[in-house]
Write a structure and sequence with these properties.
This protein is an alpha+beta fold. The protein is 22% helix and 35% strand. The longest helix is centred in the C-terminal third of the chain and has 27 residues, at 237-263.
Amino acid sequence: MTQLTEHRKTSRPILGPALALAALLGSLSFAEDKPSNKLRADKEALAPLQGFVGKWKGAGFLRRGSTKGAWREDSAWAWKFSDGRACLEFSSPGARHLRRGQLAAAEKSGRYVLNAELPDEGGNARYRGVKNKDGKLVFEILEAERKNSPAPARISINLLAAGKRLVVLYEGKNARSGRHYRLGEVGYTLSGTSISSGSGQPECIVTGGRGTIRVEHKGKSYTVCCKGCLEAFREDPEAVLSEWGTRKKEALERKKIKEKDQARPQ
């Protein structure tokens, strides 16, 4: 897959992945250059989208309330760690609109970038997104690799039913009126929805999400949420466990401060 990369937006023109990364690294201070700082920032920025991670079984519909033209579509989301950075990666082999892609955090807080590959040699497309007031993650197209690309102009992603349902709406855009129109909608159900979503759920030691895959290290068992996190753990388990311990310690300190504040007389 040829990637269109805008992992962190800058005012520079779009460059190839290697040149863009080199230019970005050259503009930062030594302290900011540490891979651990960048990786942690990426994970924190993408944490609100942790619910996307997992395997999903779905059905697509051209129109609501009608099965005419409906299709089956599955998708899998996982974390991807590479060169000291993190993003969310998805794959939908039988998809009608987007076959695979990577979702990364943009430089501005609360904004995201989606680089996607279209099916049937439709090329690539790049999107910029933000959560709206209803909690939907809405992406607007920035550019498509090919002229007259079939890439959707707008993509809205909504996580429902306590994280067990994922609904993706694809829309086109009328060039004259500027109005959006429906291309299709896919409703997914999370595989393994019997997994508890309560406070006692297993925790992914890499991202803090819902742990679904068990791993062993020095006689102890832990859980991770996806293949990407499994690979990251296997690559350097001691570093992952150290960061996990620090994260839990910080969370405990925040809890103590909150409880102390709540106990103060009003």
